[in-house]
Input
Amino acid sequence: MSQTALIAGTGALPALLAAERPDLLICELEGFPSGLPAAIRFRVERLVPFLNDLIKRGIRQVCFAGAIQRPKIEASKFDFRTLTLVPRIMSAIQQGDDATLRAVIALFEEKGLTVVGADRIAPGLVAEAGVLVGQVSERDRTDAARAGDIVAALGAVDVGQGAVVSRGLCLAVEALPGTDAMLDFVARTRQREGGVLFKAPKPGQDLRIDMPAIGPRTVEKAAEAKLSCICWKAGGVLMLDRAATLRAAEQAGIALWGIA
Output
């Protein structure tokens, strides 16, 4: 029996981790289907019974993967033990996403569960340094440096993991709707071609739950936005379906660059 549970959300990442580790115990938050055969489905309102169930099953560590938005809470479904945690969780939510994630990690750790990142389950998904596809122009390098400064500045106030810069001008920054929404906005509003998408963790971000990721869909959206380069902080971003991502970038004429 596996000693590791996968708390699976939506998107491609949970299936990639399950393929890497077929022994994972798949757990799913109600309302956010992962597409995997979940052994356990749980609700936030019954978080404590869910944690106790993991312990009884011999689980020692958990990995969070996939997208989960803030679920709709139904007060009538709370059990007493979980209800006592509400003030603590609400206080964290009001401080931003990073504070919320740290609070979630703390709840699991207090039960004796170790929280590990997706990079521990599948280290081959971590995007490395170097130009993987195409050629990076001097303009791309200048735009990437500018985008990196923007992401670092916004990350300090718990906003976003990405930015789009073209010819030194910031066209968009990533907020709660995510990377796809940011690139859709750029595609609708821009007037010329070129520019970079830069992805990186926020300063001091705990990567065990919310490590940034790129994949074939990112390339597709970047092409629609007429960008010339996708770059990332090496070692801090996951590349989902590497072969398909590289192939899509080659076909679109978009450079892929991991910045050391």
The chain has two domains: 4-121, 126-259. The chain has a mean pLDDT of 91. Residues 131 and 257 are 4 Å apart (CA to CA). The two ends are 39 Å apart (CA to CA).
